[in-house]
Amino acid sequence: MGDKNRLFIIIIIAVFALSSAAFYFYSKYNVPSTLKAGSFQTETIERGTVISSIKASGVVESESEVLILSPARSIIKKVLVEPGSWVGKGELILQLDKENVAKEIEQISDQLEMKRNSLEKTQLNAQSTRLDLGYNEEVKKLRITSLKSTLADQQQLLEVGGISPARIEKTKQEIVLAEKDLETLVEKNSIRLKQLAADEKGLILQIKAQGKDLDEKQNLLKKLDIKAPSAGIILAVTGNEGSRVDADKTLVRMSDLTSFKVIGSIDEKFAKQLKTGNRVFVKIDNEDLPGRVGNITPMVENQKVQFTVHLQDKSHPKLISNQSVEVHIINSDKENVLRIKKIPAFESGNQQQVFVIKGNEAIKTNIILGTIGNDYCEIVSGITEGEKVIIDDLNFRGLDRIEIEN
Predict the structure, then answer these.
(1) Most CB atoms within 10 A, among 60, 81, 138, 331?
(2) Which parts of the chain span the membrane according to its record (predicted)?
């Protein structure tokens, strides 16, 4: 009974094997010699760019870190954002104690007010002094004018013998003395006016200096609220609440999310083809972002070599920190060559047979491929621009031409 069952199973297996072989033979060798128009895909031979590249992986990172320094010696009053948090531009990160700076502002403001009052008094005093000095000069001038008039009268009297020559000589001496007195007064008044102008200018300069100092302190008061200069991720905060910090010491380390780079990783077997300056493109959501290879890590870790990619558009809106991307290192870039869309069969070698549509027929044609690119293959010979080729994975073994039925 057991032998019969075993024989039955063997017969079933043999029948199945023969049926499979027959089906394979029929599908492989007994193919139709006609195709219906519209039942297959074609590709038109055109001119364009063929790019061949080595595929690598990459992660988007911030291109640089931002260091926020303490604007003054102070104490950390409050920490509002912890390391690892994302912050937007202008967002408050931490606050420094403002008490000392606020007191300095108050003192400077009081001093500035006093200086302004002094300036006002000096200006009023100068105005009054100018009036007094001007009055004194006018009095001296009138005195000289009066003496000269007296001298003229005396000279007329001298002619008629009504006055002695000695009296006229005395009047002349009085005029000379009065003129010298006026000259001295004018010079002293000039010096006095220059002193008043210098005092006023000095007060104005002091007011400007203190005003500038006040502006700096007021700006410093604002800076004690430590805000993010750009969007980014907080990497570290130096110190805790209550900690004392010195001026110009690092308070916050954060990444700058306004510009990015890519850290690439490639299999070590391609390391010799990786060179600084190599052109690359980073593929994100079917968009290719061009760039170049920067620094290459000399060590191999986990059979991988790491390198940096500097993007042409570092602020592209699709770039996101820690995003995984494809990196393609270009090893061949041919422009304005005949090309055809890449199909799996073209991976087997540069000599290929394709069916070219000519009228109502598809004729088998030998073509020579050049660069096998990522999306297209270069055509060296065998076909011309504008011709159409069937790209469907159809098996037409043994046929040289296929009729196309409309």
Answers:
(1) 60
(2) 7-26
